[in-house]
Amino acid sequence: MKRLLVGLALGELAFLLSRVFFACFNPEVAPISGPWFQWFLGGLLFDGVAFGYLLAPWLLALPWVKSSRRFDFIFYFVPLAVGLLLNGIDTGFFQFSGKRLTFDFFLTTDLENQGVGQIWVYVRDFWKVTLSWLLCLMPPLYFVRAARYRGLASDSVTGEKSGRVRSLFQFGISALLLLVLVRGTFLLHGRPVPIAAAAQFADATSVPLVLNSVFTILRTSQKRPLSDYGFFLEEELAEIYTPIQTIQPFDIPAGSVRPKNLVVLILESFSAEYSAFLTTREDAGFTPFLDSLMQKSAWWPLALANGQRSIHAPPAILSSIPGWMADPYSLSVYSTNSIESVVRQLGADQDGRSVFFHGATLRSMSFDTFVATAGISRHYGRENFPVAIAEGDQNTWGVQDRPLLRTVAAELGQLSSPFVSVVFTLSSHHPYQIPDHEQPERFPSGEHPIHRAVAYSDDSLREFFERASAQPWYSDTLFVLTADHVGPRSSQNRGPRWWDRLKDASRVSPGFWSGSYPEDFERYRVPLVMFSPSGAVPAGLQITVAQQLDIYPTVMSLMGFSGEVFSFGKNLFDPSQNQSFFYVENQGTGWFEGFYRDASGQVRSVRLAAEEELARGGSSPFGGDSIGGAPSPRDVLKAQLQQYSRALRSNRMQLPHR
Q1: Is residue 356 very low, low, confident or very high in pLDDT (cuts 50, 70, 90)?
Q2: Domain 260-574 CATH class label
Q3: How far apart are CA 469 and CA 473, in angstroms?
Q4: CATH 3.40.720.10, the chain: domain bounds
């Protein structure tokens, strides 16, 4: 038993070191003044579950096997090394994803085409993380080397009856311990400990510190259907919230021409903070062209991405589908559902008048499956750019932005109007490589390597608009520019300083916001720009809080559509829609947080552990008061989740007219 206890203790020491390194590399999750003891105490629970799965063969064989380095190395050291490696990958990857690894990470990583190269790039660019992983291996390595020679050997296993009885007794203890570890609880009834249990030990920001990557991957390894959230009766539900919205044509300014074509540009990792126009940065920023375009466009200083990974962006932007479940929509059991999309609503799903451009492989991020489901006729990927690849215009992931956007400008001229084109850039994705012939040093650099890559992508965007403006379809086109998610944050613009300076510069209305700025928004704040060369979209700042889900219904209004759409967003130009409850965050840990503005304009949030509340019959411990007699924010959040669940489960996310 001594050997078992010492092995588990040294394994926990290794996971503790891994957690410390996670905090050091991601300081935003672990404020210095935080409850560290509580965090690490909670971590013991989730580490125990990881040990239960990783070390199950070792635990069950211990009573019957004599101590040997080979046995301990294979069944103890190797599983722990793999678990610590996953924690190490997460330590570096967290700055991009904002959450612990989940099983979909393996489904969206193109191992066949990029896996081996990416391993070397990761080791090179995150050598400090690699070193921390090696340091975490020291405690289990010490156990393997010392177990036989320093008094940690197992009890003698002999053929004598007493030895067999002792081994059988120890096996029973090991089996019971394994059951407790795997379930995460001493109770043999009820559900095993869920990811959401981490909220008992930390607030939303610090929950990733309490968890470990092995646990979150295991708990998300099986695709599960959404629960049927029956919070309200059907007649009550529609009164509180409905995703069926009536769209009226936007009243375009006199003398302008309503656009016929749509081009959506999804810019990889373009955080709003990289723009001088969106932050009034002290430097010139890294998006001078995008900043200049905003001055001729409708733009939103508070636009929020609906996810933290690229795979969430196309469903949110094109079909207003939130990522309110454990799996990304494109990888879920509902990915083949019939859905609405801006492509189908504009009739561009017929006659090859819609195209999706992306520089990575066609199967990357399961874009190929969603593109087909959304009704997009053609899909360009890395395989369609042999010349660019031959000339070295590619990085680890795919074709660079300049040759991609040059191809887009040329191909759009071949489409029949009206058409819809979606372009997804990638040069500003790690490892932020810029071809040597582009003379990378001519682009401004900042404190993070992504800044120079963003500047290169912005310059590629400038050239695209120059080429597009010379073509006849340009003046009849609505351009929508946003990002898939935020990129790594820089120290210069952390916190609400950018917001205070915008207000000081009188670039926002005094009534737009009151109270303190919720810094959590910086994890999601991206550009949102809508530009019409003909002037159909009035230029200027828009004071509505926006999200990616709002793009679909807003575009339909701008394009002159009249009728109903199925959307979990809102028409940003419709003042009659309730703007108080404006964003729902799926925190990936079993609960949701909805943000709203109260009657005084102060931003508040309401949190909902949906599964736990359903089990309790609807009683929630989290806050959220009524807004002027309207349904409470908590009820609005529950109604949204119920409508979302019902629509997916019954395959009713498309109205009968389409």
Answers
A1: very high
A2: alpha beta
A3: 8
A4: 260-574
